[in-house]
Prior knowledge:
Layout lengths: L7 H24 L1 H5 L7 H10 L4 H9 L5 H4 L4 H8 L4 E4 L2 E7 L5 E7 L5 H12 L5 H9 L2 E2 L3 H10 L2 H6 L23 E11 L2 E8 L6 E6 L4 H13 L2
Parallel strand pairs: 3-4
Antiparallel strand pairs: 1-2, 2-3, 5-6, 6-7
Helix pairs in contact: 8-9
Amino acid sequence: MDDGSQPHGVQHARQRAGRGRGKRKGMLQRTAPTAARRPATDWSSAYIAQQQAADPDIRPALDWIAAGTRPLWESVRPCSAAVRALWQQYSSLVIMDGVLHRIFHTPSGEAKYYQVIMPAELKTDFLEMVHADAAAHLKYKKCLDHIQRRAWWYSYKSDLDVFIRCCDKCNSHSRGKAPPKAELRPLITGEPASKWIIDLCGSFKASQGYKYIFTAVCPFSKYVIATPIRNKEASTCARVIVEHSVMR
């Protein structure tokens, strides 16, 4: 209506939609700031189609679908690996709303997903939104399912793996796989004081010049000898072993 007057229901629906978009952008700013800084929330079919047409690896596939014919392999062999991969999946490619999609088939042959062929310019923003927002910083295996249900591009698995490894938030909470540890072996002793386990602790705040503690533990009786020392020199440690451990 040109005079600006609209039914109350239409106005209310548009107000709720506007509030939803603002809430969504605010959520994206907190969870996926890299994607929020770019117009990722404003992606439309026309915008994605424009990016696909400008992508040198996707443009040939668009021409194939528009012409309705698959080119000969000899003409595709010199092209990039991404173009060759799209050529091999020609029967699964379809254009919907002007956007090139790939049909994801189950092992039984059922069409399960329509995956957007993601242009190279949008890969980083897409990974940021999926990993940081939709997948809530899940690891590779769980995040891969979110990718497969939405988009496809050549080497998307390796790109996802590298992206997760470089995620600042994931690295700040995960230290990676723990290093291998040797198996513990029991220390067998038959009588008290047959063996001693010695160690040096410190340095601590000095008290009358003593900054370290020499400890000796009997593994059989669990008897502990703790001796304060002023330094960790070999002569000092030898004297403590003789006077406070062996002689005692």
